[in-house]
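Pinned message: reference record for DUF1877 domain-containing protein
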Amino acid sequence: MSMIGYFRRLNPATAQLAMTDAASADHLFTGSGAEGELDVDKAWHAIHFVLNGEPWPNPGLLSQVVFGGEPFGDDLGYGPARHLDPMTVKAIAEELRDIDPDAIVAAVDLSRLDDAEIYSGEWAANGDGSRRYIKDNLRALCTFYATAAARDEAVVAWLG
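Predicted structure (tokens):
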């Protein structure tokens, strides 16, 4: 079973309803590529590491990109979904605006990802393919947050 990172943009009212009514939230977590949904595949953990230099959440804003938000609802296989409100989404988008995915990924020693046991592993062995995979998914996630911020949307994130 794979751990896939999903992010979904929602208007704030829909996000709030999903947090308080489990029945209304079920359809949100299908991972079906619905409008406003981004699938970063297995790159979620590498993206976090590249942005933060460590494998697990910390108090910094860039840690919120992948691991942030208020948990809610049922366990979706690897924990509950997490809700990021529009203000947090805007702050994250602002922080990501200054990130150059090409430069930040090029600067990473891929063996550090392996040493830190970043999911899904074998980053150094895959070399340029790993860099391209991380960079492409990071770029998509930066665009995703910029779009959500511009639309004053909330974000719901989960691993499935």
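Pinned by admin. Summary line: Residues 127-150 form the longest helix (24 residues).
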